[in-house]
Automatic annotation (TrEMBL):
Broad-specificity nucleoside monophosphate (NMP) kinase that catalyzes the reversible transfer of the terminal phosphate group between nucleoside triphosphates and monophosphates. Has also ATPase activity. Involved in the late cytoplasmic maturation steps of the 40S ribosomal particles, specifically 18S rRNA maturation. While NMP activity is not required for ribosome maturation, ATPase activity is. Associates transiently with small ribosomal subunit protein uS11. ATP hydrolysis breaks the interaction with uS11. It holds the Pfam family AAA_18. Residues 113-123 are annotated as: LID. It comes from Nelumbo nucifera (Sacred lotus). It catalyses: AMP + ATP = 2 ADP; ATP + H2O = ADP + phosphate + H(+). Keywords: ATP-binding, Cytoplasm, Kinase, Nucleotide-binding, Nucleus, Ribosome biogenesis, rRNA processing, Transferase. Residues 38-61 are annotated as: NMPbind. One of its GO terms (molecular function) is ATP binding. The lineage of its organism: Eukaryota, Viridiplantae, Streptophyta, Embryophyta, Tracheophyta. This is Adenylate kinase isoenzyme 6 homolog. ATP binds at residues 18, 20-23, 114.
Length: 175
């Protein structure tokens, strides 16, 4: 799906839990009138999973079912997809891939406040520390559409939303 076959862009906002994906995606959707799709919520609502993972206290998503559910919406364009993983979505779906990142102390506090403990907390902190999702995005999408953005505080989020809103506007004018 090339940019010019859609009237509006698709943006993937990814990053480890606690990096501000939902906040950033919601604010960006408000600013651009693009549709926000929270994949975690969609998985729960439509039962797009293969059960529960007790160790990590979350659903085990069925990636094929998620992609089938999203395919028509993504084809239309005009979506902000919010999810912590990115390597299973087709490369052609996205015009911009945003990887939100936070400092470990910020991640630790945010995740602890959410009740993350044990291996779930450790695993997410390690993923952030080793930039696993940035590397996953760079391996899954053309590098020119992947951008890493710091998301440590309200100012970072505001700046990111402004930058992304400008990108959406420039995408419209380029298409």
């Amino acid at each position: 799906m090339a940019q010019n076959s859609r009237k509006k862009p698709n943006i993937l906002v990814t990053g480890t839990p606690g990096t501000g994906k939902t906040t950033t995606s919601s604010l960006l959707a408000d600013a651009t009138q693009l549709r926000r799709i929270n994949v975690g919520e969609l998985v729960k609502e439509k039962n797009l999973h293969q059960g529960w993972d007790d160790e990590f206290d979350c659903h085990v998503i069925d990636e094929d079912l998620v992609c089938d559910e999203l395919e028509d919406l993504v084809e239309e364009g005009g979506n902000i997809v919010d999810y912590h993983g990115c390597d299973f979505f087709p490369e052609c779906w996205f015009d911009h891939v945003v990887v939100l990142q936070t400092d470990n102390s910020v991640s630790y506090d945010r995740l602890s406040n959410r009740g993350y403990m044990g291996s779930k907390l450790t695993n997410n902190i390690e993923c952030e520390n080793f930039q696993v999702l940035l590397e996953e995005a760079k391996a899954s999408y053309p590098e020119e559409i992947v951008v890493a953005m710091q998301s440590n505080c309200v100012d970072d989020i505001s700046n990111n939303v402004a930058t992304l809103t400008d990108w959406v506007r420039s995408w419209h004018s380029a298409s």
